[in-house]
Design a protein that fits this description.
single chain; alpha/beta; Arc Repressor Mutant, subunit A; D-Maltodextrin-Binding Protein, domain 2; five-stranded mixed beta sheet; 11 helices; 46% helix; 19% strand
Length: 298
């Protein structure tokens, strides 16, 4: 019997057919286990024998037995399929036990810890990795399969991403300046020092657009992605800043800042985003369901 080489996928299927026949010691039982016809299974085993150049099985009255060469090939096949079982088990563990979350610095500080606490209450063994960046950076990393899921400020999404709206927090303008009136028009902030998030931030772009379409030029006195640094600068009287409501509720309640009322209804949209082809991952499903059941922005 001369060896005949086939492509790797066919070779794998033929090896699988042989492995189960040898394991079950029967073409009938192996065919049932693999949901194949006995004739198909027989052809696959014969094809493997042709590929290798020697017989693997011999039939006696009661069962199928391995030839001497078949015993050697069976030991390798057993190792191959044991490794595949380990791989499947490891993949299942990854799907259930580990999640990588991309989010913005402000959401990471004020919202994500509450989400993780709720997630871990149902799965204490869950390993969580949190990464921060601007919303568009998070989207790029989700598309590259570096993160399972994102919690970000809404921007333009690619078609292969699923987005779930979870909140629409108002933007509050806060200062530590007793001279500024409690309520002003947006035009009154022309020339007033304002601290913004870093360039590329969706919230920053939105604010600049809102002021721009009213023909208002604002004075940017400082920039930072870190909410606590921005608060520190506001506290020192360096200027005012816009924060989503959830980030300054405690500060306002305890009198650390003054909120200046504006007539414009300024707000941002917060979404949970993930790739369409990852929607059935256990960690993704659990994360989405957690957001559907709980309001983390109150």
């Amino acid at each position: 019997m001369e060896p005949h080489h086939s492509n790797p996928i066919q070779y794998f299927n033929h090896l699988k057919a042989f492995y189960y026949v040898a394991l079950c010691e029967s073409f009938t039982r192996a065919a049932d286990k693999l949901s194949l016809s006995q004739s198909t299974l027989s052809i696959q085993v014969q094809s493997l024998e042709q590929q290798l150049g020697f017989p693997l099985l011999k039939q006696n009255k009661r069962r199928v037995e391995l030839t001497e060469e078949g015993n050697i090939i069976f030991s390798y096949a057993k190792s191959v399929f044991a490794t595949l079982d380990d791989l499947a088990s490891a993949a299942d563990d990854i799907r259930k036990r580990k999640i990588k979350i991309g989010t913005t610095p402000t959401l990471a500080q004020y919202i994500v810890p509450k989400v993780i606490r709720k997630l871990r209450s149902g799965e204490s063994g869950l390993k969580v990795h949190i990464f921060t960046g601007q919303s568009r950076e998070v989207i790029d990393r989700i598309k590259n399969y570096e993160y399972h899921i994102g919690i970000i400020t809404r921007c333009e999404y690619p078609r292969d991403l699923i987005s779930l709206p979870v909140a629409k927090p108002k933007l509050r303008f806060v200062v530590n300046d007793p001279r500024l009136a409690a309520a002003v028009d947006m035009e009154d902030l022309a020339g007033y020092p304002i601290i913004l998030t870093d360039p590329g931030s969706v919230t920053r772009d939105y604010l600049l657009q809102e002021f721009g379409k009213r023909g208002i030029s604002i004075k940017i006195c400082a920039e930072s992605e870190n909410a606590e640094i921005v608060k520190g600068m506001v506290n020192l009287g360096m200027g005012g800043a816009f924060f989503p409501a959830f980030a300054v509720e405690e500060d306002l309640r305890e009198g650390r800042f003054r909120e200046i009322a504006l007539p414009a209804d300024l707000c941002v949209h917060i979404d949970v985003v993930y790739m369409k082809d990852r929607k059935n991952l256990t960690v993704v499903r659990n994360f989405v369901e957690t957001f559907k059941k709980h309001n983390f922005f109150r």
